[in-house]
Design brief:
Length: 131
């Protein structure tokens, strides 16, 4: 399993950050420009990544004010999960986004850079939204 992660600290209550992240409708705001045809409900999102394919993701698990686990809602070329981990410290919310993917050596070489850039982008967008 290959893991990628990015972190931020927000000057907002953990309840506010969790309420935003646990609703897939809000995740469209975290996506880069190459994501389009976004469609979502509270629990699922489907979208297309330019020059790639259509993806469907769903919330598999929610732990109030601490974790949201998102997994594919349909068949994917490799196992993948997105984990939003929240922790409250000194009145601030620490947010970590982990992306775990089962990548073979060739996929790891090709996808590592873009996957790390994606989660870094999403953490930056989250920081901008809550600034």
């Amino acid at each position: 399993m290959t893991s990628f992660e990015s972190k931020t600290t927000l000057s907002k209550p953990i309840e506010e950050v969790y309420a935003f992240l646990e609703d897939c409708n809000n995740h469209e705001q975290l996506q880069p420009d190459n994501v389009y045809d976004w469609s979502s409900t509270r629990d699922e999102a489907t979208f297309t990544i330019k020059n790639m394919s259509k993806l469907a993701l769903k919330v598999k698990e929610r732990k109030e004010n601490s974790e949201i686990r998102i997994v594919p809602a349909s068949e994917t070329p490799f196992d993948i999960s997105l984990n939003w981990l929240l922790d409250q410290k000194d009145g601030k919310t620490e947010v970590k986004l982990e992306l775990n993917a089962e990548l073979n050596m060739m996929m790891k070489m090709m996808a590592s850079g873009p996957l790390q850039k994606l989660i870094d982008f999403q953490i930056k967008r989250l920081t901008d939204i809550f600034s």
